[in-house]
UniProtKB/TrEMBL annotation, chain A:
SUPFAM superfamilies: DPP6 N-terminal domain-like, RNA-binding domain, RBD. The keyword Oxidoreductase does not apply. Signal peptide: none annotated. Component of the eukaryotic translation initiation factor 3 (eIF-3) complex. Belongs to the eIF-3 subunit B family. The lineage of its organism: Eukaryota, Metazoa, Ecdysozoa, Scalidophora, Priapulida. RNA-binding component of the eukaryotic translation initiation factor 3 (eIF-3) complex, which is involved in protein synthesis of a specialized repertoire of mRNAs and, together with other initiation factors, stimulates binding of mRNA and methionyl-tRNAi to the 40S ribosome. The eIF-3 complex specifically targets and initiates translation of a subset of mRNAs involved in cell proliferation. Component of the eukaryotic translation initiation factor 3 (eIF-3) complex, which is involved in protein synthesis and, together with other initiation factors, stimulates binding of mRNA and methionyl-tRNAi to the 40S ribosome. Its main location: cytoplasm. It comes from the Eukaryota. It is found in: Cytoplasm. This is Eukaryotic translation initiation factor 3 subunit B. InterPro entries: EIF3B, eIF3B_RRM, Nucleotide-bd_a/b_plait_sf, RBD_domain_sf, RRM_dom, TIF_beta_prop-like, WD40/YVTN_repeat-like_dom_sf. The gene is LOC106820895. Residues 55-138 form the RRM domain.
From TrEMBL, chain B:
This is Eukaryotic translation initiation factor 3 subunit I. Gene3D superfamilies: YVTN repeat-like/Quinoprotein amine dehydrogenase. Keywords: Cytoplasm, Initiation factor, Protein biosynthesis, Repeat, WD repeat. The keyword Cytoplasm applies. WD repeats lie at residues 6-37, 48-89, 184-225, 281-311. The gene is LOC106807383. SUPFAM superfamilies: WD40 repeat-like (SSF50978). The lineage of its organism: Eukaryota, Metazoa, Ecdysozoa, Scalidophora, Priapulida. Component of the eukaryotic translation initiation factor 3 (eIF-3) complex, which is involved in protein synthesis of a specialized repertoire of mRNAs and, together with other initiation factors, stimulates binding of mRNA and methionyl-tRNAi to the 40S ribosome. The eIF-3 complex specifically targets and initiates translation of a subset of mRNAs involved in cell proliferation. It comes from Priapulus caudatus. It is found in: Cytoplasm.
Length: 689, 325
């Protein structure tokens, strides 16, 4: 500090008086205080040339227009960009009277500018113009790149190994995952005959449950901090997706994308509830908010993974990959939209809307991306609708719950009376998509299409009188009842992935009754029971069925049983605190239809070879078992011999303790004792005559 | 073969035992009156009357001259088997959970509960000295400091006692020193039953942890383990075949909430060496509380929570059946 300041502290009154008269500097005074020291805080607030730069954005790739259409362009752009804050200034550079394809906007504050950049980057104005939006300050940042800047090393490609390794198994055994020990341990088993072979066991592999990807390539494990995917030969980690509190996931059918959902409180500006990831790179593609009362999967994928759609009140939004932008930039307005689903083989969406006053309920088939209505079906007296696609997309069954009467009760809730039910069968492959109707008077408990083929099965009736009916769709498109099985204990239907065979299951409340049905002639091949079974799952080839009792729903007798498709019990595994079993899916076969036909024709030839192989494994296994038993027996017999020697040596002591007892060995010739029992007394009166 | 159903008890059967010859079957139940039956035809021979509380345990002397019972009426009684007269009565300060005659039949043993501030003890009397019982002066009292005794038997000769405990421990006591010789922990829950094999070199435990286990008596080494899905209440070793039979089922208190099938009240036969189950015997509609092989090995009996005793005689098929090895 300089002198004047120090003097200021020790001012005496005389000095003050002197000073009052003259404020001017003495002649020899040199002003050595900089402006910065005096009013630095003010100076810092002084307007600068670059001020407002942070609030400016540059929008590239806008249409180049002449003066005549400039006003229209300005209107459009203002509408888009004023959503993020007040635009205080705009500037369209021109050349030869035409705009140059970019524009500057200045907002009232930098926050609006940042928001605008985030939200409009990649905005598609039309087919030719996709916005590129940047902050003006970014230009400084990018132009002032230090000279010694080095481009980042390209990340080396990490070879995940052969992700299809599991399909190379010589005997084509399938794999399945098992979670047990109350969730602490997860294993992968190979479904080998007699006993499954454990391929992998890890403690705390997942925190909740696991899921296989739809083609079986990846195993997803759930953790508080996100999802991990495992695969390849030794189940190495392939990818991680960090999503705190992740709860539910869904793969795209092509295994290219992963959708994750977390119920944790969402960030308003940066949607985090639902995240879509690129599965191979691990890059987050887009985040979405989640609305209340949504049903998982919120996003439904088209069969080829090209589109995904979600439903919100009165709107159906279809997004396209890989941009994850709204298809054609707008959602479909569908008033009162209740539910929708994609065809499993074509880009067709079916949705339905309920009745509204005098307007009938409608089921609409919509082609994507053209949005062409392929078929509309009007329906009256509709209480509820459920839609079931056949797996090859040939048929769609719409279950309609209809009512004879409806009224509103005191609480304003609609009550229905005189319910009856029908199925509207849509023949998708036919011209103009004709619809057949199957009517049923009884409540429907379950419905399922044969995955391959043209049959479907329905469980219907009241809880005491349950019927399972099989219907066929004939080549002339007539739907007819094939056969019914009456008085069954079933509430679930499980078709073999190959069709023809079907398991009727009475799960949970019905005590685990399982019936294996051959639907060619609808005969029950075997009726069995797995007490308290909670789950039934076919293996991907349709050769085996697993029934399971999960610790998540039942505290006792947990474990899983393995059945052949004919209902023969193959293996029984009682596992403490067993939680979940899941077959590893297989990708679709590479064989052509002709190939398959040929194999079917020559089945006998192939079967002989396999039978021989089975026999050999079996005899090998039984040989091993016998060897093991022999060893155990030998060991035990040695032990028993020692015991016997000791026993012999103690004979005297025993005699001492039990005087008078004859040792058993010495008294082989026991006296035979005849005991007579009074069994029955019978009085017969002999006729005296 | 059709089993004999002995229905003489009004409440759950708690323990059954054969005499050495196997012609008589002794049973006790919660209804206070122990019974004795002809094992051959299931006819009741007689009843021991006197207890005023549930009877938990019963044992018979090697020569079938006397019977000992322990009850929740806080008494241990020794009966004359022939006449049914009560020979001795010992007043105890808690319920009696297990009792037994020594090999010679000269000594008796019983264990008491750890309740109402009373310590769990194992007590011994010498029957040859009548004064001991009369004056309630045991020959030996062994204080059980840890987990309470849930089952106890006389082990080799008149020298040792084996006890099963609430925490799953199995202990061997030397009565000369009155202290524990060895403790093993192979079970995780109550060991509720202990039974010796015919030459007294091994014993089998039954535990609420769903397992029965075979031990060497001298060393307490674990030999074999038999796993089920339900608590095991009793296990017995066949005297003629390498087989063991296990009985139990869903806990009595949970039974009302489940069906009979779900309760798994079947008796299960296991191969003693391979630890593999090979047969089940249905019948009881409550858990089995006690099982015993007839000393001739041709039948076994089970007493259940349902109050019935079932005498099951093996079919010829049973004797023909052999494990392949």
């Amino acid at each position: 500090m300089d002198d004047s300041d120090e003097n200021g502290d020790v001012i005496d009154e005389d000095y003050v008086e002197e000073c009052e008269e003259d404020y001017s500097d003495p002649e020899d005074f040199v002003d050595d205080i900089t402006d910065e020291e005096l009013l630095g805080d003010l100076l810092r607030k002084r307007p600068k040339e670059t001020d407002g730069v942070e609030s400016c954005i540059v929008v590239d790739n806008i249409p180049q227009v002449g003066q005549d259409r400039l006003e229209k362009l300005q209107m459009v752009l203002r509408k888009i960009f004023s959503k993020f804050g007040k635009i205080v200034n705009e500037f369209y550079p021109k050349e030869n009277g035409k705009t140059m394809g970019y524009v500057f906007f200045e907002y009232g504050n930098p926050n609006s500018a940042r928001e605008a950049v985030k939200m409009t980057k990649g905005y598609k104005l039309d087919k030719l113009h996709t916005f590129e939006v940047n902050l003006l300050t970014d230009f400084d940042k990018y132009s002032n790149i230090p000279e010694d800047w080095e481009p980042p090393e390209p990340q080396l490609y990490k070879d995940p190994g052969n992700l299809r390794h599991w399909l190379m198994d010589n005997d084509c055994h399938d794999q399945y995952s098992v979670i047990h020990d109350g969730g602490d341990r997860t294993c992968i088993f190979l479904n080998t005959p007699l006993e499954p072979r454990m391929l992998e066991e890890r403690a705390k592999w997942t925190e909740t449950y696991v899921r296989w990807s739809p083609l079986g390539t990846y195993l997803a494990t759930f953790h508080q901090r996100g999802i991990a995917l495992w695969g390849g030969e030794n189940f190495r980690q392939i990818m991680k997706f960090s999503h705190s509190g992740v709860h539910l996931i869904d793969f795209s059918p092509c295994e290219k994308y992963l959708v994750t959902f977390s119920p944790l409180p969402d960030n308003k500006d940066d949607p985090q509830a639902i995240i879509i990831w690129d599965l191979r790179t691990g890059i987050k593609k887009r985040g979405f908010h989640c609305e209340k009362d949504s049903v998982w999967p919120i996003f439904k994928w088209s069969h080829d993974g090209k589109y995904l759609a979600r439903m919100s009140p009165d709107t159906l939004s279809v997004y396209e990959t890989p941009s994850f932008a709204l298809l054609d930039k707008k959602s479909l307005k569908v008033t009162n939209l209740k539910d929708f689903s994609w065809s499993p083989s074509d880009n067709i969406i079916v949705y339905w809307v309920p009745e509204d006053n005098n307007v009938p309920a409608r089921v609409v088939l919509l082609e994507m991306p053209s949005r062409k209505e392929l078929r509309v079906k009007n329906l009256f007296s509709v209480a509820d609708i459920k839609m079931f696609w056949q797996k090859t997309g040939d048929y769609l069954s719409v279950k309609v719950d209809r009512y004879a009467k409806s009224r509103k009760d005191d609480k304003g809730e609609v009550k229905f009376a005189g319910m009856y039910y029908n199925f509207e069968i849509f023949h998708i492959r036919e011209k103009q998509i004709p619809v057949d109707v199957v009517e049923l008077k009884e409540p429907i408990i379950a419905f399922a299409w044969e995955p391959v083929g043209s049959k479907f099965a329905v469980i219907h009736g009241e809880s005491t009188r349950i019927t399972v009916s099989f219907y066929t769709v004939k080549s002339d498109n007539q739907v007819s009842l094939f056969k019914s099985l009456e008085k069954r204990q079933a509430n679930h239907l499980f078709w073999s992935p190959q069709g023809q065979f079907c398991v009727l299951a009475g799960l949970r409340g019905l005590g685990g009754v399982l019936e294996f049905v051959d639907t060619n002639d609808v005969t029950v091949m075997n009726g069995v029971q797995h007490d308290l079974a909670t789950d039934v799952e076919w293996d991907p080839t349709g050769r085996y069925v697993i029934s399971a009792v999960s610790w998540w729903t039942c505290r006792e007798d947990t474990g899983y049983w393995l059945w052949s498709f004919q209902g023969k019990l193959m293996q029984r595994h009682a596992i403490d605190r067993f939680c979940q079993v899941l077959w590893r899916p297989r990708p679709p076969t590479l064989l052509t239809k002709d190939h398959m036909k040929e194999i079917k024709k020559n089945l006998k030839k192939y079967a002989a070879g396999f039978d021989l192989k089975d026999k050999m494994t079996q005899s090998k296994a039984s040989k091993e078992l016998i060897e093991k038993r022999q060893e155990l027996m030998k060991e035990f017999n040695d032990y028993r011999k020692k015991c016997h020697d000791i026993y012999e040596s103690l004979a005297d002591q025993r005699e001492e303790l039990r005087k008078g007892q004859v040792d058993e060995q010495e008294s082989e010739d026991l006296e035979e004792e005849t005991i007579e029992f009074f069994i029955k007394e019978e009085e017969i009166i002999i006729d005296s005559e | 073969m059709k089993p004999l159903m002995l229905h003489g008890h009004e409440r759950s059967v708690t323990q059954i035992k054969y005499n050495r010859e196997g012609d008589l079957l002794f049973s006790c139940s919660k209804d206070t009156e122990p019974n004795v039956w002809w094992s051959l035809n299931g006819e009741r021979l007689g009843t021991f009357k006197g207890h005023t509380g549930a009877c938990w345990c019963i044992d018979v002397k090697w020569d079938t001259s006397s019977v000992i019972t322990g009850s929740a009426d806080n008494t241990v009684r020794v009966w004359d088997c022939k006449t049914g007269a009560c020979l001795h009565k010992v007043d105890v300060n808690t319920a009696v959970r297990s009792c037994g005659f020594s090999y010679s039949g000269n000594l008796i043993m019983y264990s008491t509960d750890k309740t109402m501030g009373k310590e769990c003890t194992i007590n011994l009397y010498d029957l040859r000295d009548a004064a001991q019982m009369k004056n309630n002066e045991p020959l030996l009292t062994m204080l059980v400091s840890g987990s309470k005794v849930t089952s106890a038997i006389w082990a080799s000769m008149d020298e040792t006692i084996v006890s099963g405990h609430e925490n799953g421990d199995v202990c061997k006591w030397d009565i000369k020193t009155g202290s524990i010789v060895k403790t093993v922990r192979e079970h995780s829950k109550n060991v509720v039953d202990l039974q010796m094999n015919e030459d007294q070199s091994m014993f089998i435990t039954a535990s609420k942890d769903n397992h029965a286990k075979l031990f060497d008596l001298a060393t307490l080494d674990l030999l074999k383990s038999y796993k089920t899905e339900r608590p095991v209440n009793s296990a017995s070793i066949s005297p003629i075949k390498p087989h063991v039979v296990l009985g139990g089922g869903q806990e009595a208190m949970d039974v009302t909430t489940t069906s009979t099938r779900h309760g798994k009240f079947d008796a299960r036969l296991y191969h003693m060496v391979f630890e593999e189950e090979f047969a089940r015997v249905k019948g009881h509609f409550g858990p089995i509380n006690s099982l015993a092989f007839n000393p001739d090995g041709k039948s076994y009996s089970s007493g259940g929570e349902d109050g019935y005793i079932r005498v099951n005689t093996f079919d010829p098929h049973y004797f023909e059946f052999e494990f392949e090895f």
